Amino acid sequence: MSRKLPGFWQELKRRRVIKVIIMYAGVAYVLIELSSNVTGPLRLPEWTPTLVILLLVIGFPIVLFLSWIFDITPEGIRKTESTEFSSEREPVAANKSESEHEPGSEHEPVRAGKLLSTSNIIITLLLGAVLILLYPKIFHTDQFKELRDESGLITVAVLPFDNLTGDSSLYFWQNGISEYLINRLGSSEELAVSSSQVISDVLAGTREVNTASLSPEVARKTAAKINASIYATGKYIGVGKDVSIMLNLVNTENEN
Q1: pTM for this model (two decimals)
Q2: SS3 of residue 239 by DSSP
Q3: Angle between helices 4-14 and 17-38 (to 10 degrees)
């Protein structure tokens, strides 16, 4: 058994199966990362990356099988010769090579290393692409480290929005928009979102009830009282059905 393994490994190398595996792995990783990054912006189905992974898993044994049987040569795709047949041709190939170098020979020697160098270039490019994609993950620095609390969460306060439309029937949007954002942000595993009731209680003692808009100073003090690292505030303006919503996300400590 121990003698067969080195022989099998040499056969894999001779048939260039190892290089095919390396290239396939590189292409697969690039495709998986690409599908994960473009699914959101292109509004593709959420199962798109899963489908790509499934197709790559199915395709791997097929590519492995084809790489074992066939070989890409300078003359085109050919069936890989067996070990016995290849060893029989070696002396002939050696004699042919010597005759090709004789003076007056009309034929130039075939550059067998040309295909090899091409595959090496492809592998190098794939490894470069993989390293570029892996770099942010390996050397990732948390740009929100200063905003996290002891538990590693970012505390967020979503304050009521200001109604600048002049339409009193839209006043319910002040808390409606903030309540919607609180519910959506609350599903994040990295955020600790303050409830609307906590914010209302703090605001009740911070500003007058009839204040038309929430000033930046009042907003910052409200977020500071509930120990929120960042706070969201905004306003909606417009006439009739043409209403625009503007949102500000502010660092409580430095007001950036």
Answers
A1: 0.45
A2: strand
A3: 70
